[in-house]
C-alpha cells in the first residue's frame, strides 16, 4: 500500500477547520500530523466535542517552520491576511498549500482594492484557482491552490457554461443566500440568534468582496468584461447556500442541454429538472443546478453546502488532485436528509 501523505490543518478551531478535520480523519491517504490554532495547547476534543472517540491530540501554536517539518501539504483555514504569512514561508520549504482564504484568489490589484495590502504578491500568479471543473489542469501542477469563495463557487458553476450565450451588453444579477456558518465562528451583531432567528436580510448589496471575484473569473474565461450585480443575504439556517442568477441571452436556448453537455463528465455537479433545494446538497460536495429560459431571459439556481463545496470538501478535492490521488477520494457524498 502507498505511504500516506502528511497534512496540516491550520485554523483548526474554526468552522471550516472542523470540516477539514472530519474529512481528513477518515481519508484513506491523508494523515493529519499537525493541528494548528492561534495560541496552541487546546485539546482537539475539547475544541470540537463532536470529535470525541474520533480524533485525539492537542493543537499547536501555528508556526510555518514547524509545519514544514511534519507536513507535505497544509490546509490554511484562516482569515484572509493571516493566510498569506503562512503560505509565503510554507512554499519556500516546498510544502503544498491549499488556502481557504481569499489571499491568492484575485490579481494583486483587485485584491488590494477590496481587502488589504498584499504581503506576498510574487506567489499570486503561481496560484491555481481551485474550482476543478474549470481549472483542473492548473491545479494538477500547482504548489499553491486558492480555494474559491463560497458564493463564487456556487455562482461560477452555474454561470460559466452560459458565457457563450450571454448578451455582451447586459449585466448578470446574482441574488444569493447563505447559512450563518458562512460568517465563521466569531459572533457579530448580524448573526446573533435574536437577530437572525425567523429573519433574513441582505448585506453589502453591490459591494460584497465576492462580486469582484466572480467578475474576474468570468473575465478570465472569455476575455470579455461582464457587469455583475451581486446581493448576498443571510438566512436563518446553519449551513447551505442558494444562488439565484438572472441573465439576458442573445437567443433562445435549451439551458438544460447546455448544462448537461458542459458537466457530462463531472460527477459532483448535478443538473436538476426541478428547482434545487438546500437540503439536497448540505453535508455533501455536490453542486446542484437548475436552469430555465423564457423570452431569452435565463434563470439559474445553484445550491451548495457553504462549508463543504464552498470550502473544506473543495479544499480536499484540490489536495487530492495536487497529490495525484483519485480526485474524489474521501469526499462526502451523502446529504443530511431529512
Ligand atoms: N465559513 C464558510 O462557509 C467559508 C469560509 N471560507 C474562508 O475560510 C477561512 C476560514 O473560515 P471559517 O472557518 O469560517 O472561520 P472561523 O472564524 O470559524 O475560523 C478561523 C480560525 O482561524 C484561526 N486563526 C485566526 N488567525 C490565526 C493565526 N494567525 N494562526 C492560526 N490560526 C488562526 C482562528 O483560531 P483561534 O480560535 O485559534 O484564534 C479561527 O478558529 C476564511 O478565510 C473564510 O473566509 C471560505 C468559504 C466558505
Ligand atoms: C454569511 C457570510 O458572512 N459569508 C461570508 C462569506 C463566506 C466566506 O467565508 O468567504 P471568503 O472565503 O471569501 O472569506 C461573507 O459574506 O463575508
Automatic annotation (TrEMBL):
| Pfam families for this protein | Semialdhyde_dh (PF01118), Semialdhyde_dhC_1 (PF22698)
UniProt keyword annotations, A-Z? Amino-acid biosynthesis, Arginine biosynthesis, Cytoplasm, NADP, Oxidoreductase
Q: What is the annotated localization of this protein?
A: Cytoplasm
- Any GO molecular function: N-acetyl-gamma-glutamyl-phosphate reductase activity
For this protein, what reaction is catalysed?
N-acetyl-L-glutamate 5-semialdehyde + phosphate + NADP(+) = N-acetyl-L-glutamyl 5-phosphate + NADPH + H(+)
* Biological or metabolic pathway of the protein: Amino-acid biosynthesis; L-arginine biosynthesis; N(2)-acetyl-L-ornithine from L-glutamate: step 3/4
Q: Does the keyword DNA repair apply?
A: no
Q: Where is the Semialdehyde dehydrogenase NAD-binding domain?
A: 6-142
Q: Tell me if RNA-binding is a UniProt keyword of this record.
A: no
Domain of life here? Bacteria
EC number annotated for this UniProt entry: 1.2.1.38
The active site annotation covers: 150
Q: Which InterPro entries match?
A: AGPR, AGPR_dimerisation_dom, AGPR_type-1, NAD(P)-bd_dom_sf, Semialdehyde_DH_NAD-bd
PANTHER family reported for this sequence = N-ACETYL-GAMMA-GLUTAMYL-PHOSPHATE REDUCTASE, CHLOROPLASTIC-RELATED, N-ACETYL-GAMMA-GLUTAMYL-PHOSPHATE REDUCTASE, CHLOROPLASTIC-RELATED-RELATED
Q: Per its database record, what is this protein's job?
A: Catalyzes the NADPH-dependent reduction of N-acetyl-5-glutamyl phosphate to yield N-acetyl-L-glutamate 5-semialdehyde.
NCBIfam families from the xrefs? argC (TIGR01850)
| Family, per entry | Belongs to the NAGSA dehydrogenase family. Type 1 subfamily.
Q: What is this protein called?
A: N-acetyl-gamma-glutamyl-phosphate reductase
Q: Record the organism.
A: Sulfurospirillum tamanense
The beginning of the lineage is:
Bacteria, Pseudomonadati, Campylobacterota, Epsilonproteobacteria, Campylobacterales
Query: In the UniProt record, what gene is named as encoding this protein?
Result: argC
Amino acid at each position: 500500500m502507498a505511504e500516506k501523505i502528511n497534512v496540516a490543518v491550520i485554523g483548526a478551531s474554526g468552522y471550516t477547520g472542523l470540516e477539514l478535520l472530519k474529512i481528513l480523519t477518515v481519508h484513506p491517504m491523508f494523515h493529519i500530523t499537525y493541528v494548528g490554532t492561534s495560541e496552541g495547547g487546546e485539546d482537539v476534543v475539547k475544541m470540537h466535542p463532536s470529535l470525541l472517540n474520533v480524533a485525539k491530540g492537542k493543537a499547536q501554536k501555528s508556526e510555518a517552520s514547524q509545519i514544514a517539518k511534519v507536513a507535505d501539504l497544509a490546509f490554511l483555514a484562516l482569515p484572509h491576511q493571516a493566510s498569506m504569512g503562512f503560505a509565503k514561508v510554507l512554499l519556500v520549504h516546498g510544502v503544498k498549500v491549499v488556502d481557504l482564504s481569499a489571499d491568492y484568489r484575485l490579481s494583486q490589484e483587485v485584491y488590494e482594492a477590496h481587502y488589504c495590502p498584499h504581503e506576498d504578491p510574487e506567489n499570486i500568479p503561481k496560484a491555481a484557482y481551485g474550482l476543478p471543473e474549470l481549472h483542473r489542469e492548473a491545479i494538477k501542477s500547482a504548489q499553491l491552490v486558492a480555494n474559491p469563495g463560497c458564493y463564487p463557487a456556487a455562482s461560477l458553476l452555474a454561470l460559466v457554461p452560459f458565457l457563450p450565450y450571454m448578451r455582451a451588453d447586459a449585466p448578470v444579477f446574482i441574488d444569493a443566500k447563505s447559512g450563518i456558518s458562512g460568517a465563521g465562528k466569531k459572533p457579530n451583531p448580524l448573526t446573533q440568534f435574536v437577530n437572525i432567528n425567523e429573519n433574513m436580510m441582505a448585506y453589502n448589496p453591490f459591494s460584497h468582496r465576492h462580486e469582484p471575484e466572480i467578475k474576474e473569473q468570468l473575465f478570465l474565461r472569455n476575455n470579455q468584461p461582464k457587469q455583475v450585480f451581486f446581493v448576498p443575504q443571510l438566512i436563518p439556517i446553519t449551513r447551505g447556500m442558494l444562488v439565484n442568477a438572472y441573465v439576458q441571452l442573445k437567443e433562445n436556448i435549451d439551458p438544460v442541454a447546455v448544462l448537461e453537455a458542459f458537466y457530462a463528465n463531472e460527477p459532483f455537479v448535478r443538473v436538476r429538472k426541478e428547482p434545487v433545494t438546500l437540503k439536497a446538497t448540505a453535508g455533501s460536495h455536490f453542486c446542484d443546478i437548475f436552469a430555465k429560459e423564457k423570452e431569452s431571459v435565463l434563470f439559474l439556481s445553484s445550491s451548495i453546502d457553504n462549508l463543504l463545496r464552498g470550502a473544506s470538501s473543495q479544499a480536499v478535492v484540490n489536495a487530492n488532485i495536487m497529490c495525484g490521488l483519485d480526485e474524489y477520494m474521501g469526499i462526502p457524498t451523502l446529504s443530511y436528509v431529512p
